[in-house]
């Protein structure tokens, strides 16, 4: 990788139906570096929940936009892989503000992709009007064009997570694609039938969440998903290992082999 534009172009091509981009979400410089060096890793993605909790604040834009951009800069500067940033709702009240913040994110952090959400608060709560959500996606696209970086926009559809209808979810997904999204982050695809329906009815590539008890990664690839991420679950995995180790050591137990894991910035 030599330029930010090349990283953006690569990130886009890595979203392939049948050969999905797997992003093991990170939240700081050292997690970015460790994940980037794992065999098979081709790009990175942050998770806002993890980034926020690591700084002692709540998710759902507990960070200021300046803090969010700085967190992205730290991650992007630690590695040479393309980085997609969970940019929550854009940290702005209106589409113009989203556009300005996305421009800053691109120029100040080196990120080449974003997630942007269409809910007003949590994924299970009310959503923005479709017109407002579309305008925000369009503003993010315009910001990418203004910077000369072909930003990869992973537009999140929270309709099913919030108890909404399938038809509305699909309508929103296609409207976001028309507004400039590259991929639809479709929450609520709980089983293979819903994945198939989404792939049939949405006019573009689809990303989804993977996790323990969910559809196996190999099957998601076979169905035609283009990207799988894990959100804050990778932070949970890390904290669970730390908690188990603390309990073992406090009980004068055996030293876990992972204590010898070597790492460096």
Automatic annotation (TrEMBL):
Protein name: Isocitrate lyase/phosphoenolpyruvate mutase family protein
CDD domains, alphabetized: ICL_PEPM (cd00377)
Database matches in Pfam families: PEP_mutase
Keyword set, alphabetical order: Lyase, Pyruvate
UniProt keyword Lyase present: yes
PANTHER family with a match to the protein in the record: CARBOXYPHOSPHONOENOLPYRUVATE PHOSPHONOMUTASE-LIKE PROTEIN (AFU_ORTHOLOGUE AFUA_5G07230) (PTHR42905:SF16), PHOSPHOENOLPYRUVATE CARBOXYLASE (PTHR42905)
Record has Repeat as a keyword: no
Gene Ontology molecular-function annotations: lyase activity
């Amino acid at each position: 990788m030599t330029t930010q534009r090349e990283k953006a172009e690569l990130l886009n091509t890595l979203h392939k139906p049948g050969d999905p981009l797997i992003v093991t979400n990170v939240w700081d410089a050292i997690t970015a570096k460790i994940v980037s060096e794992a065999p098979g890793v081709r790009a990175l993605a942050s998770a806002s929940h993890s980034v926020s909790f690591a700084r002692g604040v709540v998710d759902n834009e507990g960070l200021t936009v300046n803090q969010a951009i700085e967190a992205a800069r730290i991650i992007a500067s630690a590695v040479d892989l393309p980085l997609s940033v969970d940019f929550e709702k854009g940290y702005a009240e209106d589409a113009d503000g989203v556009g300005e913040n996305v421009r800053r994110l691109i120029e100040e952090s080196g990120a080449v992709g974003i997630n942007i959400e269409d809910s007003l608060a949590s994924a299970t709560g009310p959503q923005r009007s479709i017109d407002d959500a579309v305008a925000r996606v369009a503003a993010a696209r315009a910001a990418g064009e203004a910077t000369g970086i072909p930003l990869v926009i992973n537009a999140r559809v929270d309709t099913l997570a919030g108890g909404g209808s399938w038809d509305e979810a699909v309508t929103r997904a296609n409207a976001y694609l028309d507004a400039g999204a590259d991929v639809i982050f479709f929450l609520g695809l709980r089983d293979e039938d819903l994945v198939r329906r989404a792939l049939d009815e949405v006019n573009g590539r689809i990303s989804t969440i993977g996790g323990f008890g969910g559809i196996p990664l190999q099957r998601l690839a076979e169905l035609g998903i283009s990207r799988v991420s894990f959100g804050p679950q990778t932070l949970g995995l890390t904290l669970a290992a730390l908690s188990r180790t603390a309990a073992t050591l406090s009980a004068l137990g055996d030293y876990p082999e992972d204590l010898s894991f070597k790492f460096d910035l």
